[in-house]
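Quick question: what would this complex look like in 3D?
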Amino acid sequence: MSDYLANNSDVVLAALRQHLGLAFLPLLIGVVLALPIGYLGVRFGWLYHPLLNASGIVYSIPSLALFVTLPYVLGTQILSPVNIVVALSLYTLALMARTVADGLRSVDASLTEAATAMGYRRTRRLLEVELPLALPVVLAGVRVAAVSNISLVSVGALIGIGGLGALFTRGFQLDYTAPLLVGIVLSVLLAAVTDLLIVAVQRAVTPWSRATTRRA
Amino acid sequence: MITFEHIRKQFPDGTVAVDDLDLQLPTGQITVFVGPSGCGKTTSLRMINRMVEPTSGRILVDGEDVLAQDPAVLRRGIGYVIQHAGLFPHRTVVDNVATVPHLLGRNRKERRRAAVELLERVGLPATFADRYPSQLSGGQQQRVGVARALAADPPVMLMDEPFSAVDPVVREQLQQEFLRLQSELGKTIALVTHDIDEAVKLGDTIAVFRAGGHLAQVGTPQELLEHPADDFVREFVGRDRGFRGLSFESAAALPVRPLSEAGPARLVLDDSGRPVCWEGAGVRGGSAPVGGTFTQHDSLRLVTDLALSSPVGTAVRVDGAGRADGLVPHHDLVDHLATRRAPA
């Protein structure tokens, strides 16, 4: 396995780089789109259930099916990474729109009311009170979406673009375990490190959520 | 001064919460809105800072119609305290207190300095400044809530059941300190409670609401207890209003007996003359704690309570230094209560 790594480091690194891009660009796009959409689902209560249903439906589409269908919808090449990015953005959006809505709904109504009574206007209240209080729920969703994206990228290898997944297909086709092992170890590591990073961010931005035990 | 003029609030479902309310809340005083649930007291309070919009009528704060003002700007000028404090859990104590100065765009350092000062004013040490609300007890949170309402030094404060979510001991303490604070600050305060005892204790004026948003009576606590306007108020202020009325009568005129006339029991004093315990015949177990004392500045209510709870049926008066200087057996107290209103 070390021989394989030594001789193919550029291939492995390129696969890793592609994997990172294909997992995180959609994460970013999905989260950015989910924030306003999730908010609308709370602001206009009647949108909440349609939002849940839509996200459930999107999430239930098998990833491979989506990868091979998107070129027809988008007019892209079947081997274009755009297909993967769009598909994973959709999954992230489906998961996160719902999470953002649930996070905002989890904020105690008496707190938003207190904020209003102090003189907060709606937008500033959203940014300074509701969103920070929804962060623990939202970031928990980001963890799930990130790890799910990292594992779904590998499926793309079946249609030719799959980051570390390409190492699986190569190892399988050549009946050679080294790339298979490297691919598996790196995917798992990537998922674990990402998860830890998000947890670290979560702890850094929500110090208040842990400050419960010490009493005066 | 806060003035309600012909205020009516009808909710979309047709319920009339407040009907033709005319009321004036004097400047620098505490006006308590009290009444059973559903009487419109909270709705009335919340119309002052436009958390609820009246269907018709006018509310003036110091002569200015609140409905003509930008709600957010209006609210920043009116302190607001709610049940359970409603602190922002993601902000430290000092940032919670500085909420309104933050909205008003005051600079960070100035905000913090003023907020720490306020914490001390409401009886919290400055070391609490950087804690989060979840690290505080309910009573401490409520103090922070009061500090937050005071942060921008608003002339008017609204308090919605501010002390009802804490245990009785803490409530008593918060009420005392609130009165002390108010005696220094002289805010115009509207306070909602369902607890008539709290209303009597805190209110300069009490407005008793009845179901449907009508005023049953407006008056000082003493007026309400002594001359309830009708059966509703009489029933609401309760059966023991005679006993509660004693809160307003001083013990100064109450005759006391010398310590030597304690009867079969004996009051044991320490070297400096402070009461320690009761001893002797008629005391169960031979010795019992005094339980409490009063001075001539206390109320007849306290004396009555002491006499009733004393192991020998006698209240003990002390001077300013805590030295026992007189006794009031319960039969003397009863005689005094019976004759105190008799023409001289």
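Answer marked as accepted. Chain B touches chain A at residues 49, 51, 72-76, 80, 82, 84, 86, 88-91, 99-100, 103, 128, 131-132, 134-137, 140, 148 (CB under 8 Å).
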